Each structure stands twice: as C-alpha cells, then as structure tokens.
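Inputs:
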Amino acid sequence: MTTVVAQQHTGAPIIERIAGEFARQFSTSENGQPSLIADLRLRALEELQRLGIPTVRHEEWKYTNLFPLLAKGFTHVVGGAVQPSALENMTAPLQRWGDVVAMYNGRFVGSRDDGQVLLSLASALAADTALCARIGSLASFDDKAIVAWNTAFLNDGVVLRVPANTTLERPIVVASVLDAREHNVVVHERHFVEVGSGGFAQLVLVQRALGDGESLLNQVLEGWVGESARLVIVVVQDGPPRSHALTTHTIELAKEARVEMITVSIGGGFVRNMPEVRLSGSHADAHLYGLTLADGTMLVDHHTAVEHRVPHCTSNQLYKAILDGRATGVFNGKICVYPDAQKTSAYQANRNIVLSRRATIDAKPQLEIYANDVRCTHGCTVGRLDDEAMFYLRSRGLSKAEAEALLLTAFAEEVTTTIPISPVRDDINATIEHLLHADELA
Amino acid sequence: MKRPILEIRNLHARVGESEILRGVDLVVYPGEVHAIMGPNGSGKSTLASVLAGREDYEVTEGEVLFDGKNLLELSPEERAREGLFLAFQYPVEIPGVSTATFLKTALNELRKHRGLEPLDAMEFMTIMRQRAALVQIDPAFFSRSVNEGFSGGEKKRNEIFQLAMLEPRLAILDETDSGLDIDALRIVADGVNALRSPDRAFVIITHYQRLLNYIVPDVVHVLYRGRIIKTGTKELALELEAKGYDWIKDTAELEA
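Outputs:
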C-alpha cells in the first residue's frame, strides 16, 4: 500500500524570497521616501506574510493556480539602465494610439512629467503628502495578497490628474516595458488616476517584453472619476507567452460619472485581471468588457467586481472568450448591490467558444443582492461554433476555415467595437483577424 | 445535344435510422425550371439538403452527377464553387457578419475558383447595388448583419439576392414561397424570372402551386414517400392544386 502525501503548497519559500528582496531593496536607504509610504510598504509586506500566496483552496483562486507561475522564480527589479533607442523602438508604434509614457521595469522614464496633469508617482509622492495618504485607499491590500505584494514594493507609476471640465484630447498610453534580458523579472507598477468633475480622459495600458526571460507585471491602478466625468481604460494584453500579468484596476465613480474598461487579452502566458468598480454616486454608469483569445497553454482569468453602493446606477459587463489548444479561461463576475442601492440595473454576460477538447473554461457569476428593487441579469454560455451558421457560409463557397474565421471575428468584434479609440480598435481588430486567419493555415 | 446539369439516379438517403429518399431519379438540363411538389414529409427538403451537402444525411445508394462530376464526393463549399446554390427554407442569422463582408468573401471565393481576380471594393459595390435592385433590397441592408432581425420576407428576398450575386449554374429553391405574402412572393418570383437564362437551371421545391403562377416551370414532379411518382407539365401543378395530394397518394398506392 502506498502512502499518499498531500502536496504542501503553502508558498512559504516564495514569501521568504519576497521578504528577502524587500529587505534588500528598502532597508538600506529610505532617503527621500516619505515615511508614510515606507510605513505602508511595511504593513503591506506584513499582510502578505500573514496571507501567504493564495492556493486553489482560496475561493477567489479556485480556478487559477498561481504556483506554476511563481515557480518560475522572478527577481524583483526597479528601473535600471536602458538604451533610449531600445525603448523608442518598442514604443514608437504606439504613438498612433496616443501620447506614450514608458515605464521601464516599473520606473517612469522620459520627459512626459509636466508636474501638473501627468507626473511620475515617485516625484508626486515626494512633493504631495495628501497623495501619500490616498494611496491604497481604493485598492486596499486587506485580504488581497497580490495587492499587498504590489504595495510592499510600491515605487513608481503614472499619476494622471485631469482638472475639472477638461478633456484630454489624446489618449495617454502607458507602455510597461519589462526587461527580462538577464533574468526572469517581476515588476510592480502603481498608477493613480483622477478625473475632475466634468472631465474626460482615455488611458491605454499595454505591456511589452524585452529579452527572452519570463516577465511578470503586477499592476495596480486606483482611479477616481468625479461628477459627470468619464474615464476610458483600454488594457491591451498581446505579449508573447513568456509575458505574464496580474492587474488590479480599482475605480470609484461619483455622481453621474462613467467608466468604460475594455480588456483585450489576446496574448501572454498567465493573465489574471481583477477590475473593480465602485458606484458611489447616483446615476453612475460602469461598462466592463473583456475579450480573451487564447491558444497554447495560455491562462486568462477575468475576475470582476462591481459594487453598487447607492441607488440609480447602472453597470454592464460583457466578457467573451475563444479558447483553443490547451488554453484555460476563467470568468468570475461579482455584482454586489448594497441594501440602499435601489433602482440598480446590473447586467452581466459571459460568452465562450471552446474550439478544442483540451481547452477549458470555468465561469462563475456571483451575485450578492441586498436591495429589493433592482434589475439584475446574468447569463453564461459555453459552446462550439454554430453548425447551422457554418453550413450556411460553406454553402455559399466559403471554406471551413474561412467560415470559422469569419464567425469568430464577428464574435470577438462585439467586444472590440466598444473601444472608443479608433486607432486602438483598428489595430486590435487587425491583430485578431490575423490571429484567427493564421490558425486557418495550421 | 446539351449535357444535363444535374442527374440523380436511384438516390437513397437517410437521417438516423429512417430512410427518407427511396430511389429518386431526376434529370435537369441547363435552362430548365423544374418544380418538385409533394405533401409534407415526402422528402422534398431532404433532397435539397442532400444536394447542398448537409452532413446530417447519409446517402446509402445511388449517385448524383453535377455537370458530369460526382457531386456527393464534394464538400458543401466545393459544390457552391462548382455552381450549385441552395436558397434555404430557413435562412440562418449570422450576428456580427455584415451582408457585404459575407458576400464579398463568398463571391471572391467563387471567382478564385473560376480563375478570376478578386473584385475591388468599387466593382463589388456596383454589382451589389445592381443585383439588390432585382429583389428590391435597400442598400442599407449591406451593412446589416446577415439575416439578423430580418422579417421572413426579407430573409427570402436576401436568398434570391445572394443567388443573383453568386450566379450559380443550378439554383435549388427550398420552399422559398413559405411565409411570403403576395407582394413578397411577386418580388421573389420577378427576381428569379430575371435570373433565368439558357445556361442556368432551377429546381423549385414547393408545397403549393401558388409560386408556380409566377415562375412557370418546364417540368413538374411529384415527390411522395421519397420517390418521384409522377412527372408532368405545368398543368400537373394545377391539377394537384385542384384535387389535393390525396388524389396522387391514392394513385401511388394503386400503382405500388
């Protein structure tokens, strides 16, 4: 008889390594850093040590196992020397989308810091204690290991402050360049966005990998959208399989404010997105859209949380996935309606097409409704391509592969059409079409 | 002597355990219009589906030659490229795919097969507008998703519009008249009549004689229990209309 030994996945060695890197990075010199932040970091590390790395026994991580990812062994890096031309090459094509700010290994680079609207977080924190106090007030690290990890290594990021009644004409494109030429790297970025009442801003977040090593981006963004203001965030995840991401984008909406978050995950290895929206002013309006196009061994997890805190708000979530190969998709969509939030309208739809027998999708709607006068709907479908539609297209002369690509492109475009920045939308649609047609040749 | 465009010999087909076609014989020459009539469940739509290549049906016996080629060996798309067109009884809605994109892809696929260059956007639009006018389709439809939210009549007109765009050698119309009011019926029939040519043949499958007032057939067949039991001229359709299918059923049973 064999004895089965339960595999221990406490993550203790990983936490130990993280704590060691923390000591190396921060204990020697805290000069120039406000003590508020140093204190925040320390508390975050303690929380991470208390929580440990979440295992699949943790309800929020049931379908997504972090251990194979973290077993790759990542070194914490911040900034470093890089040839400006190398950065330039990576970010130049993004100029089409808007004004590009490059983050190199988590460090704000370049001359975009204007001291007013667009700043580096490091410089803003040094000058502004009020800002220091707000960091972490939206994206709390309590019970959240990934945010705690990010906060423990809080260094730099982008601060975007749009004054009241001001429209930023050009989108801001934050290009996170992770340099894994020497070793596997983990990079923590912390962004802060505030759109004043009546203001409008568009933000594109994109990740780029340098070198052949594995890179992991842990990105946290806290955003406040003021009264009648509008914020658009487009997250473009189109990297190579060695590029991984953990994102936590937490947005709070004031009265009549609107946010649109569109996440396009068509590349990368391990991707976990945790968008959170708090509707805290009446008639606020949140739109969350996501598209996953995954092949190979990709894992893409969209873990959304929408909190209706006050009456008369609306939210709409649409997440779609096309899964092929041995890819894994996860959708966990949480809607929480507070007892006072009457007249809430909250919609959630999750549609999945699974093309291969070895691809999987785990989908879980999670509705917590404590008010009685609300309209909430959710729906989830998992299927293959419609046989009738395939036959119809083929009977008009389209090959099986062409018919499939046409149907899948249409399926994907329902999400990409929600991107209000047309050069971004066009480029992404072109990439998707290319990916779907490339499949055809295989 | 012209070669037949379609030759069906002793065709047997089944879906699951039940045999639906039990020895169909049919020969269609270019330029001809054949009507296939018959009561519900006689195998009319099965015949259309088998010819178009729907995979739910299994051919157990017999052969089908299309322009001399073995049709049953070809995939649905190869059949279309060879010049076979099926106007669906229930056209499929395809959300997110515009009629223009769909038809451009289809037409260029057919052109490629015929060794022609793909059409540029301008040429394509010109042809689309011209053919749409045949069945009174508003160009606003071009940017709408294929059949999505179309009324029954619009869907059927859209089938004939596609026929006009793809210019097949043989068009099979599967109950195109079902669900049409008299005005829509006339539009569809006018479209089909405009597309009749010495090189093109039509097989019109219908339950009712009504459509045949507008599209006058050269030959009328009666399909019953999976076999063609009677063939005649257009007068046969009128006789069927007057006497009902029971008359033909009785005849069939007497002969059996």
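Remarks. Residues 1-8 of chain A have pLDDT under 50 and may be disordered. Residues 254 and 340 of chain A are 16 Å apart (CA to CA).
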